[in-house]
Design brief:
single chain; about 160 residues; alpha+beta; ATP Synthase, domain 1; 3 helices; 9 strands; ATP_synth_F1_dsu/esu; coiled coil
Length: about 160
């Protein structure tokens, strides 16, 4: 009897662990909160889709996406609003959380709309970061300079788009 009960519990547990691909059935909503230290861009606003750059690869989020926690890499977050309008925001780093209830939180260290990026300032920042990398005296300085170079390269790429 105990063995039958144990097998029944295992079978039930396996069924609960099955996951499939996310889809976006009509009527489902996804609430987005997107904030950085300098500004709140979206505050529980319902949106259609969010495309994010992460260290495990860029990916898109639709309603009913599997719960996810990821680290943002420098790049552009694209938000497709319900009216089809696309908002593109550059992020330096941060986290993305997708919850069971289809709510999404993007928390960025720093974020700026693409139209506010200055290509010449980005080029200057890249040159400075590369110079700091070349003159790095220790591993810590080298690591900090590499991060600055990566962010500056992504800002330059976003500003040129």
């Amino acid at each position: 009897m105990a063995l039958a009960f144990r097998n029944m519990l295992r079978t039930a547990a396996r069924r609960m662990q099955v996951r499939g691909y996310a889809d976006a059935p009509k009527g489902d909503e996804m609430a987005l909160t997107f904030a950085a230290g300098n500004k709140v861009f979206f505050n529980k606003q319902v949106v259609k889709q969010i495309d994010v750059p992460s260290f495990s690869g860029s990916f898109g989020i639709l309603p009913k996406h599997v719960p996810t926690l990821a680290v943002l890499r420098p790049g552009v977050v694209t938000v497709v609003e319900n009216d089809g309008k696309q908002t593109k925001i550059f992020v330096s780093s941060g986290t993305i959380t997708v919850n069971d209830d289809s709510s999404v939180q993007v928390l960025a260290e720093e974020a700026h709309p693409l139209e506010s990026l200055d290509r010449s300032a980005a080029q200057e920042a890249l040159s400075k970061a590369q110079s700091e990398l070349n003159s790095a005296a220790n591993e810590r300085a080298k690591a900090e300079a590499l991060i600055a170079v990566e962010v500056a390269e992504e800002v330059l790429k976003a500003a040129s788009a």
